[in-house]
Amino acid sequence: MSGPAKRVVDVAFKAGKNIDWEGMAKLLVSDEARREFSGLRRAFDEVNSQLQTKFSQEPEPIDWEYYRKGIGPRLVDMYKEAYESMFFNSMVNAFYVYFRFLDGISIG
């Protein structure tokens, strides 16, 4: 992975390291709050793990020839042209800005 997408994953990973889970856990007084907090931490760790593994990899390139054989070249060429004209960085940049904002917030 390269570019803005890698930066999003890196910032999210760093944000996760900066959370003082133990400090927050000490503030909880009821067993129910501790259970809810444990579930929150588990969910956060799962999402962070997915960011580090599944979403940090480059997607496999589309095998346009495979689809040309099954569907026909004319329709596939239309889809290929539309696909290549899309701009994917806008969403990544929005997440990057958001995570940079979160990175600047100190918890504690």
Topology of this structure?
Elements: H1 4-17, H2 21-26, H3 31-52, H4 64-70, H5 73-85, H6 89-104
Question: How would you describe the overall organization of this protein?
Answer:
- The longest helix has 22 residues, at 31-52.
- The protein starts with a helix and ends with a helix.
- The protein has one domain (4-104).
- 72% of the residues lie in helices and 0% in strands.
- The protein is elongated.
- The protein has helices at residues 4-17, 21-26, 31-52, 64-70, 73-85, 89-104.
- The model has no long low-confidence stretch (mean pLDDT 79).
- Keywords: CF(0), Hydrogen ion transport, Ion transport, Membrane, Mitochondrion, Mitochondrion inner membrane, Transport.
- It holds the Pfam family Mt_ATP-synt_D.
Short account of what is shown:
It is found in: Mitochondrion inner membrane. 72% of the residues lie in helices and 0% in strands.
Percentage of residues in DSSP E strands: under 5%
How many strands? 0
C-alpha termini separation = 33 Å
- Are there runs of 5+ residues with pLDDT below 50, and where? none
CA-based shape? elongated
Order of helices and strands: HHHHHH
Major pleated sheet: none
What descriptors fit this protein?
transport; single chain; mainly alpha; proton transmembrane transporter activity
